[in-house]
Structure formats: structure tokens, C-alpha cells
Specification:
Helices cover 18% and strands 41% of the residues. It is α+β, with helices and mostly antiparallel strands and 365 residues long. It folds into three domains: 107 residues, DNA Polymerase III, subunit A, domain 2 (DNA Polymerase III, Chain A, domain 2), CATH 3.10.150.10; 114 residues, DNA Polymerase III, Chain A, domain 2; 106 residues, DNA Polymerase III, Chain A, domain 2, CATH 3.10.150.10. The protein has an eight-stranded antiparallel β-sheet with strand order 5-2-3-4-16-15-14-9. A hairpin with a 2-residue loop joins strand 18 and strand 19. Helix 1 crosses helix 2, helix 3 crosses helix 4 and helix 5 packs antiparallel against helix 6. The longest helix is centred in the C-terminal third of the chain and has 14 residues. About 1% of the residues have low confidence.
Length: 365
């Protein structure tokens, strides 16, 4: 058996650092602080997991006829690889030790005898091929959720005359909804709904952001997990309990009224300026709807007050207090030149709609 392997240092380091993103260094489960590295049939694979997310990244190697595998501390290996040099790195595998050699010398790491958790993918079925619009959908509904526990991400597939996938992302204070049209999907998935964690959503974004333009990505599903597969990478994400977010998970059920259309950039600048004066702890701003005008105000007794006007086509009169940071977050995600503002009364949800829809709970006044 050939237990000596020479591999491109840069490619190997990049793959290890990519896999490291889901490894919890402080996990009490020792096995999942490791990488599982396998060499089989001229392919090197790096597996990592935190028990919610499981990833496998692959590199093709040449002129190697041996198969072997080992567990090794993920963070320690990556720290050493970042300090390594030269075009190639060679590692030699024995039962308890891996010795890495680069252009400057060598370092040796102990292997682990822990049992690395295997991810079962039996029973998963391919749902669809993902294109670049899928990544745009996730980016256009991006929410910066600080408390991961409160966050939710939900996918809704719908098939009538055309097929669509809706993505709903949010927490207890705001929700973002986007949709894209799909190629034909199987009738058995025409009303499929599933939820993943915010961390799972972030890992999907990173996974899709690294793919080549001509590389296909397939989405697989089972009743307990989803998986995304590319030629040299694979990620599995466990599903969360599916809880309805809206009555039918659609914007039409919110019973909101279109009150105004405004220029996105003008409204964004007004909110940015208002946030400078707004209270630091609450980021509270006031939005006032008048005929042909939307007014953005803020006040802080220690700073002062400000008022900014935005032209609009609205005729609705009303006002609400709202977290300006949440409004900015929505405006950053929207790319259209014009937005629609939807609203009912000061105690109801407020929505900003471009190519995606962002729903924010007003502050109680």
C-alpha cells in the first residue's frame, strides 16, 4: 500500500479551510473536531460535520494507487497549513501519525481513534437543478440575524401553471420573502415545504458562491435532510421542524395595502441620515405617509432631531415607528430602482417590496 501522497499545497489548503467553516473547535464531542481525510481511487476527500451540517470536499490526485483514511484535528491542521510554503506538500501516513513535508521542513500530527459520524443519504431524491438565480434568491432575502436560535429559513415549492420556489427568511421581528421561477418539477413536490436553520442557509450561500459558472448543482431531499451536490463537493443539512410562518406562507395573506412607491436610493439615503440621529439602543425612526410624500424622522434628546422628505405617488395618510437598522437591512438587499411600501396601521406589519419582500414589525407607540 502506498501511504505517501504528494499534492498541490494551495488546493489542499483551500479545501481544508473551506471545510473548517462548520467545525466547532469547542465541541464536547471529540470526533467532530476532526477532519476525516480519505484517499481512494485517485481522489482525496475531506469530510467535516457539526452533526447538523455534513460536508465532503474532493480533490483529484494523480499517480497514487493506495487507499487509506485517517482522522486529524481540523483546526490544528489548518493552522499549520496556513504557515506552510512551496508548491507541493507531501504527507506520509502511519497508524498513529501523519507527517507533512513542505519546502521548509516537516510537521507531524497524531491521528484520532474516534468514530467519525457517517452521514446516511439513503432515500434522498433529486428535486431540481439549481442555477445562479437560486443564489440571488438567498442573497436578496438576506437578514443579519444575531440570535441564531430565533432565526428560521423556509423553502416552499409551488406548481400551478408554472413552478416556483419561495424562500422565507427571518426571526421574530422581521421576515424576508423572495421567489424564483423553476424549470418543471415533479408533481409529488408541488407543495413541498421544508425548513433549515440560519446556519444552514449561510452554508448553502458559501457552497454556491464557490461553484464554477459551468458547474451544475443538484438539490436532493428526504424527510429529514436536504443535500446539494456538485462535481467535487457535497453538503448535507438536517431539516428543522416545519412551522407555518404566514397563514399560507405567502405575502397575499398579510392583508397589507400599497401606500406608496418611492425611489429606492432616495429613501435609503433618508433612512441612513435618520439613523445618525436615532437612539443607539433602539435605532427608532418614524416614517410618515402624506400625499405625494414620505417623511423620515428621528429624534434623540442627547443628539437632536432630523426630518427628510422623499417624493412618492402615495395618497395614504399615516405613520409608524420602526427599527431603522431593519429598514436599512431590507434596502441593502433590494436592487430595484423603485420600491413599494405596504402598510395598514401603526400596529400592523410594514413591508418594503422590490424583487424581494421584507416584512418588519413596527415598534409599539
Amino acid at each position: 500500500m502506498n501511504n505517501i501522497l504528494k499534492i498541490n499545497r494551495k488546493s489542499f489548503t483551500e479545501k481544508c479551510l473551506e471545510a473548517l467553516g462548520i467545525v466547532n473547535k469547542k465541541s464536547p464531542i471529540n470526533a467532530i473536531t476532526n477532519f476525516l481525510i480519505k484517499v481512494e481511487n485517485n481522489v482525496l476527500s475531506i469530510s467535516a460535520t457539526d452533526l447538523e451540517i455534513f460536508t465532503i470536499l474532493k480533490l483529484t490526485i494523480e499517480n497514487h494507487d493506495g487507499n487509506f483514511s485517517f482522522l486529524i484535528k481540523a483546526h490544528t491542521l489548518c493552522d499549520l497549513l496556513k504557515k506552510s510554503s512551496g508548491e507541493f506538500i507531501t504527507f506520509t501516513h502511519t497508524d498513529k501519525l501523519i507527517t507533512f513535508t513542505d519546502s521548509n521542513g516537516e510537521f507531524s500530527l497524531l491521528t484520532s481513534n474516534d468514530n467519525f459520524p457517517a452521514e446516511k443519504t439513503d432515500g434522498m431524491e433529486k428535486i431540481l437543478e439549481i442555477n445562479e438565480n437560486f443564489l440571488n434568491l438567498l442573497n436578496n432575502t438576506s437578514i443579519n440575524i444575531d440570535t441564531i436560535v430565533d432565526g428560521f429559513c423556509k423553502f416552499v415549492l409551488e406548481k400551478n401553471e408554472d413552478s416556483f420556489i419561495f424562500f422565507i427568511n427571518g426571526d421574530k421581528k422581521r421576515i424576508s420573502i423572495g421567489q424564483i421561477k423553476l424549470d418543471e418539477i415533479d408533481n409529488k413536490y408541488k407543495e413541498l415545504r421544508f425548513s433549515i436553520s440560519t446556519k444552514g442557509r449561510n452554508e448553502i450561500v458559501k457552497f454556491l458562491s464557490k461553484k464554477n459558472n459551468d458547474e451544475k448543482t443538484s438539490l436532493f431531499y428526504s424527510d429529514r435532510q436536504i443535500a446539494l451536490q456538485q462535481k467535487n463537493s457535497f453538503i448535507v443539512i438536517k431539516l428543522m421542524q416545519d412551522i407555518p410562518i404566514l397563514p399560507n406562507d405567502h405575502l397575499k395573506d398579510l392583508n397589507l395595502c400599497l401606500v406608496s412607491k418611492v425611489n429606492t436610493n432616495t429613501f435609503k439615503k433618508a433612512v441612513e441620515k435618520a439613523l445618525i440621529i436615532s437612539p443607539v439602543m433602539s435605532s427608532n425612526i418614524k416614517i410618515i405617509f402624506q400625499e405625494k410624500k414620505v417623511i423620515v424622522q428621528s429624534f434623540d434628546p442627547t443628539k437632536g432631531k432630523c426630518t427628510f422628505n422623499c417624493e412618492s405617488n402615495g395618497e395614504f395618510a399615516g405613520e409608524l415607528s420602526i427599527n431603522g437598522q431593519f429598514v436599512m437591512e431590507a434596502l441593502e438587499a433590494i436592487k430595484t430602482d423603485e420600491i413599494e411600501l405596504l402598510y395598514k396601521d401603526r400596529n400592523q406589519k410594514f413591508s418594503i417590496k422590490g424583487e424581494s419582500c421584507h416584512i418588519i414589525m413596527p415598534m409599539r407607540s
